[in-house]
Amino acid sequence: MAEAKIIRADTLGEPNYDSPLKGQINRFYNGEAVACNDRTKDFADLESIDDIDYFELAGPREKLFFNPKNVTVGIVTCGGLCPGLNDVIRALTFCSLQSYGVKRVLGFKYGYEGLVAKYYHYPIELTTDNTDEIHEKGGTILKSSRGAQDTDEIINTLIHYGVDILFTIGGDGTQRGARDIVEGVKKRNLPIAVVGIPKTIDNDIDLIQRSFGFETAVEATWDIITNAHSEAKAYRNGVGLVNLMGRESGWIAASASLANSNVNFCLVPEVPFDLHGPNGFLQHLKTRLQNKEHAVVVVAEGAGQNLFDALLGTNKSGNKNLNDIGILLKNEINAYFKAENMEANVKYFDPSYNIRSRRANANDSMYCLRLGNNAVHAAMAGKTNMIVGLHHDRLIHLPIPMVGARKTIDPQSWFWQTVVQATHQPAQMANS
Amino acid sequence: MAEAKIIRADTLGEPNYDSPLKGQINRFYNGEAVACNDRTKDFADLESIDDIDYFELAGPREKLFFNPKNVTVGIVTCGGLCPGLNDVIRALTFCSLQSYGVKRVLGFKYGYEGLVAKYYHYPIELTTDNTDEIHEKGGTILKSSRGAQDTDEIINTLIHYGVDILFTIGGDGTQRGARDIVEGVKKRNLPIAVVGIPKTIDNDIDLIQRSFGFETAVEATWDIITNAHSEAKAYRNGVGLVNLMGRESGWIAASASLANSNVNFCLVPEVPFDLHGPNGFLQHLKTRLQNKEHAVVVVAEGAGQNLFDALLGTNKSGNKNLNDIGILLKNEINAYFKAENMEANVKYFDPSYNIRSRRANANDSMYCLRLGNNAVHAAMAGKTNMIVGLHHDRLIHLPIPMVGARKTIDPQSWFWQTVVQATHQPAQMANS
Amino acid sequence: MAEAKIIRADTLGEPNYDSPLKGQINRFYNGEAVACNDRTKDFADLESIDDIDYFELAGPREKLFFNPKNVTVGIVTCGGLCPGLNDVIRALTFCSLQSYGVKRVLGFKYGYEGLVAKYYHYPIELTTDNTDEIHEKGGTILKSSRGAQDTDEIINTLIHYGVDILFTIGGDGTQRGARDIVEGVKKRNLPIAVVGIPKTIDNDIDLIQRSFGFETAVEATWDIITNAHSEAKAYRNGVGLVNLMGRESGWIAASASLANSNVNFCLVPEVPFDLHGPNGFLQHLKTRLQNKEHAVVVVAEGAGQNLFDALLGTNKSGNKNLNDIGILLKNEINAYFKAENMEANVKYFDPSYNIRSRRANANDSMYCLRLGNNAVHAAMAGKTNMIVGLHHDRLIHLPIPMVGARKTIDPQSWFWQTVVQATHQPAQMANS
Amino acid sequence: MAEAKIIRADTLGEPNYDSPLKGQINRFYNGEAVACNDRTKDFADLESIDDIDYFELAGPREKLFFNPKNVTVGIVTCGGLCPGLNDVIRALTFCSLQSYGVKRVLGFKYGYEGLVAKYYHYPIELTTDNTDEIHEKGGTILKSSRGAQDTDEIINTLIHYGVDILFTIGGDGTQRGARDIVEGVKKRNLPIAVVGIPKTIDNDIDLIQRSFGFETAVEATWDIITNAHSEAKAYRNGVGLVNLMGRESGWIAASASLANSNVNFCLVPEVPFDLHGPNGFLQHLKTRLQNKEHAVVVVAEGAGQNLFDALLGTNKSGNKNLNDIGILLKNEINAYFKAENMEANVKYFDPSYNIRSRRANANDSMYCLRLGNNAVHAAMAGKTNMIVGLHHDRLIHLPIPMVGARKTIDPQSWFWQTVVQATHQPAQMANS
Q1: Which superfamily is assigned to D219-355+412-423 in CATH?
Q2: What's the CA gap between B138 and B134, in Å, rounded?
Q3: Stretch among A320-324, B58-62, C75-79, D239-243 having the lowest mean pLDDT
Q4: Whole-angstrom Cα distance, residue B174 to residue B181?
Q5: For the segment C32-66, what is each residue's pLDDT rounded down to a tens digit?
Q6: Which CATH architecture has domain A216-356+412-423?
Q7: CA atoms of D357 and B360, how far apart (whole Å)
Q8: CB B361 to CB C44 under 8 A?
Q9: Which segments constitute the Phosphofructokinase domain (chains A, B, C, D) (predicted)?
Q10: Chain D residues with CB inside 8 Å of C145's CB?
């Protein structure tokens, strides 16, 4: 049999220090391969199982690269809010200080800005006292910002504060920044580990089964959709229109539609649709209203971007707001039914900020704890240029260079077909 | 001493039937006067207590005008959603059928439209079975619509269905409609009682201490403001901007600000403010951001309407959206700080539909039960042209013609001063 | 006309200092009489209105007894937890420091123990920083204890720390202790004001319309009763038995039953009942189960205490646990249906600790803010030996010596009759 | 390479009918193997991957055994309540009627009792109308009962009503009953499929990653533990003692402790402990109280069963209640600190019924939908004697005979070590 391919995280060098956790558990996870990356194969052909990729399992290691008592840990949170940020910060802090006894933990403020001297955002020292109850609130105590910063300046800051391990909590851009830092420290030959905890409320990181905050977000939609349903039912041809997060993937919108059966139309980026024409969304909405007198429509913010080009063709103003599909739908629905001389009452819900700023639910809280702990385990063992995440229900190390691709809904998948069945929407709402 | 003035509800005539509730309680409330209407006096001068108005107490009466077993009750809900509508419908239905044993209860659908033949909205018969669990959901099972309908046609419908008692659940316009119906039936000499249950989530009916759904609405703002606070704190000069209900009064916004101490600015219709200038809102917001790096702003939808005139003067496009103070503030804040060359991150929350469509909380549920029961007690005794409501913590009968005035926040009152103290906002944000 | 009787709070002496709040509002509440104490009269006879009692209105005064900049404030919380304790502590602290600029605020820990030297509970200084977000959590940051302490030792502690104003947050016993302190300082001729904020989750203080935390408690019962209903309905002859707070009055149980219509039996201390016999509770429960196959029973912890005597007569073990009516009912129901050879599935809910330890809801939060602020206003003006509370929807000063009596449900009142109607339970479940 | 072992579900025979779902998705899951059963191997040795078991993937099949239009479906729910029961009933009903167009769906009431004639529980016909909103409430509309019934009588009932497919929603005993029915229908040569949806709020089915309702239960503990923490902190040596579900495994208690960091001791059935002695729980609790003055203890109901034997040895009364570990701990803690002459304030929380009776959260709702749909897909294809469940994040078919074993927490696992770290409790609390 051909040798199975095991994908391992980079390491800074030979781990030589005994872990303080050694002996606490019966066997350590010292790099065994784990659940396979079967995204293209679906196990249909067991003959080819030998060329499936395996990932390194996350977990504490017996030997550490760093001597804990000398280690300074840095943490930074970047990009938009997501439930669980404070849980991850807390787990990183507690595991570093309590399980490994590191020298100190520094929280850099306002994202990567906090790692660039000219912004004057001095870091704060994180302790078990000042992070003890932070997970009970949403947001991030380290604050955040968007955008990249100069890699060299970031590394200068790491050197200045003697940071040995940097944890980067953020999305795609953040992890690309982390990769740049890794390359920079390599060039300078610095023994600094960079480990990412991927953050995307949209749940769209390829290979990673679930990102923290996603389940909390889906849970938060339940009441909103129920309320949209109440609004819709209370008026003649009432339309409860709910705009949810999901820039390039519709996981939140689709999961929300499966979780709350009151949804009649679910529009996601992966499934283009037309507004007009005999098979367009508006015609189907009209039919629904004629039959039931009300409808609930859930739309991911990245859905229907094709519509803007069409509209921009006829409307040269190029209004930036047009890219807001929720507002576009609201206006188009109103215009359409006015033209049809049919009453319609659109009630618009845009709860995004109200969702992403809440605390993690219990399941996400647990997940954040595990992510934080295992990021520390990895970094202490000298792993770098990697993220931690769940894959086939196991925590693994995933090299950052593999993280680029986005996980999107396959319209041919049974997951999406279940959404189609649950909503009873047409499989296609496009005219061609 | 001069005789105290007792304000009583109209009555259809002499109540002659024994109430089935007679004997169930030790004494009946047969029209005693009750807690005084002291809105202008504040009891400062006890010498003048004799010219204070007293209202008739709500409650079951020993003698009824209607013979219950022959009575048909009609119910209609009008206008926007409000938590508790289903509770009121349920209470009216249960009290009519179970406490009095009326012949039947009809629910007219889609507001006053349901009382006009040409809309073809046939009424549904309400029973204890089909209303038993409706209070567990938001919305209104009778559906709603806005706007007046022809009074004669409404009365024709009442006659057609043999309705003896009509309960009108709705706001100002609805109760004006109810008054028109009363006048119409008087002219035609019809023994039909019309009793209103006033609905305004804004809590702005003069003389009425509290309208149903209001407390639920305030409760619902708590999490939203907490989340806006989390968003604001997470970004440099973050501004959590929360647009709440309150077209002509700021009770929800002000109460929300007292209930959740994270609010830094509370803007209400009763207290005009300027945007620009040395004492304008934007200057104060800037000062706050310079000191604290974040702010939470709560605005009632009817606040700052003066600003639109000023803006319309310079901007002739007359964009309809301009009347949305939330959007206006969002745009003006962004423009101002851009001009000031100062970063600001505005996060906009507009949860109105998500608030008004939820179920009543426990305290409102109880209140709706009491309102519904006492509306039935009043109507069965032949009272008409009135609403029920809480006044100095007692349920009273209030003649509809007295209902016109709006209860607004007095900027000189200690209530508003408490808001000013709690938020630490300037007492005035106007330049002149 | 005879002079109306105005009940005023004691005062330490002549208020001579200008209030820093002076000029901030248009008119100050300098002791006007207010909404009447009509508990026995019901306004039935307006002729006698002149002998009604009037209470002093709470609110800021233009003149203060204390010079704010020299004032040390003390705060203590006693007895069981109640939603809103932290809100009151926060309001007292903020109003003292920010509105009046007092010298310092001391929080005494573990109730009255914290005011007795031998317990070594040193007070903590309360600031706007360390109390800013305490209202977001349940419990009390000052901790609590039960029971009285020696008055002289308490006063020694007040003198030691230079406390000018003591705020006592607690129930009956606490306010009796406050009264004792007042008498003690009078004897020693000390200018110390003692103002109470009455705490009883049971809502049973006579003359006070509503105590803080009560509405939160009732709200908390909603889900529990709904869940008890789900349990009851799921099994043959399922009985959801919910034990709620209410040692000597049934306000929580009764209000919970009005707020959630799934309750079939509501048992309160004010309405004795028999278990056995043809008109006993168990017979009526049996009838209910025969008709509907399930029932929800809500019982206040102080209900049915008469039953223990009867049982003790036959059962000499005198088990202390027998005084737990919830457990007694659970056992008696099981025994009864076993004897009747009829299946019954009792599901027992005892959520008390889980209710009283939660944070205040929005409405209670607002109320706590007002209570705290007005307690400070009163004390700064030199008022003492009093509590603040809501009476006919206005905040008043109530002398502590008037506080003794308990507000209980009058079984003849229309409030209780509404409970009887809503639950459809028999008006009487006693055999004699 | 040796052939991988694929574990397939039994089938009634050759599927010959085209599925109405055929063509709706691009490829059907016709029995491919899937994520491996690696419970004992941990992928440590990739050489042996060929002898790993693979399970059949759940999903719709192109060919059906049953002709949908002739099919009668039966559903039964057994045992204790669990969040999501109504979701599963709804999914089974909707998928059967809408996706396959079966003739009818019958709901048998009160568990297996409903399948035995002598109980006179007639089945109800389930439709998309009468199940449309059932998932919004906890409990089970089909009601439940405990215990086995005679298999022959059950089969007689299936024959009487012409049931072709029986879905059994329940725990171990229920699925053993299902297996007996399968054997019975085999003997009688009846083409009846029996497919189980495993229910255990404790999440302790071996091979199944997660059972429905479990995440909802863990979520529900968050507030309770937070409240227990508030109670504990408010009193000197306050102990918040929370008794949670978990008869033979501690998944809920352990997950709750990971989700809410306020837990200081987590006691589960898998990790025995002593009460007394130098390394006993009480000594450690004392140390905690001496250091921190409060503690939160979470105990699974099945923990510490060893203690009862010891106690029974000295206490011959054999009180049945003694088996309640929560009550035992409460009493023992009180007795211990009384003997130690040290104040302790134990606040006891037993929320079990209040947890299991609530509605499913969003994530469980989605899971229930998928479980229900895939159970229908399997049964329509003629699969029988199997359950559906999640395994390594994929839905599989698992033969009922493989279901016996219980999934318990391995005290040597990193999961449990994380609990030990998070709580800071001793790894061992036993004296020997």
Answers
A1: Phosphofructokinase domain (3.40.50.460)
A2: 8
A3: A320-324
A4: 10
A5: 555 555 443 444 444 445 556 778 888 899 899 99
A6: 3-Layer(aba) Sandwich (3.40)
A7: 21
A8: no
A9: 73-378
A10: 235-236
Common-topology check for domains A63-212+360-391 and A216-356+412-423: yes
Given 3.40.50.450, 3.10.20.30, 3.30.70.1350, 3.40.190.10, which CATH number is that of B63-212+360-391?
A: 3.40.50.450
Q: State the pLDDT confidence band at D43, using cuts at 50, 70 and 90.
A: very low
* B chain contacts of residue A239, beta-carbon cutoff 8 Å: none
Number of C to D CB contacts under 8 A, please give it.
Answer: 92
SS3 at position A129: coil
Please choose, from the candidates A81, A68, A166, the residue with its C-alpha nearest in 3D space to the C-alpha of residue A115: A166
Which residues on chain D place their C-beta less than 8 Å from a C-beta of chain C?
81, 110, 137-140, 143-145, 223-224, 226-231, 233-236, 347-351, 353-354, 356-358
Q: Yes or no: say if D238 and D384 are a contact pair by the CB < 8 Å rule.
A: no
d(CA B308, CA B302) in angstroms, rounded, equals 11
Chain D interface test: which of C124, C140, C227, C324 (most D C-beta within 10 Å): C227
> Per CATH, which fold does B216-352+412-423 belong to?
Rossmann fold (3.40.50)
pLDDT band of D403, cuts 50, 70, 90: confident
Q: Which of D143, D235, D351 sits opposite C235 (nearest CB)?
A: D143
Contact between A34 and D43 using a beta-carbon 8 Å cutoff: yes
Nearest to D296 by CA among D252, D257, D258, D268: D257
> B262, B282, B266: which is closest to B274 by C-alpha?
B282
Name the architecture of domain C215-353: 3-Layer(aba) Sandwich (3.40)
Which residues of A have a CB under 8 Å from any CB of B? 81, 110, 137-140, 143-145, 223-224, 226-231, 233-236, 347-351, 353-354, 357-358
> CA A73 to CA A95: how far, in whole Å?
11
What is the number of other CB atoms lying within 10 angstroms of the CB of residue C45?
A: 10
Per-residue pLDDT tens for A191-225?
A: 999 999 999 999 998 889 999 999 999 999 999 99
DSSP conformation letters of D339-408: HTT---EEEEE--HHHHHTSPP-HHHHHHHHHHHHHHHHHHHTTEESEEEEEETTEEEEEEGGG--SBP-
Residue C36: predicted pLDDT = 53
Contact D296, D242 (CB under 8 A): yes
Closest CB to A231: pick one of B224, B348, B353.
Answer: B353
Most A-contacting residue of B82, B112, B354 (CB-CB within 10 A), to test interface? B354
Give the ipTM of the model, two decimals please: 0.92
pLDDT in tens, C166-214: 999 999 999 999 999 999 999 999 999 999 999 999 999 888 999 999 9
**The pLDDT value given to residue B8:** 87
pLDDT at C54: 77
Closest Cα in chain D, distance from residue C219 (Å): 15
Of A190, A150, A248, A195, nearest in space to A400 by CA: A195
User: Among the options A87, A172, A180, A202, which is catalytic?
Assistant: A202
Closest Cα in chain C, distance from residue B33 (Å): 6
**The one catalytic residue among C87, C164, C172, C202:** C202
Name the pLDDT band for B31 (thresholds 50, 70, 90): low
Q: How far is CA D28 from CA D12, D23, D24, in A?
A: 20, 9, 9
**D199-211 mean pLDDT:** 92
Domain ranges in chain D are: 63-212+360-391, 219-355+412-423
Model pLDDT for residues B131-188, shown as the tens digit of each residue: 999 999 999 999 999 999 999 999 999 999 999 999 999 999 999 999 999 999 999 9
* pLDDT band, very low/low/confident/very high, at A324 (cuts 50, 70, 90): confident
The nearest alpha carbon in chain C to B6 belongs to C46
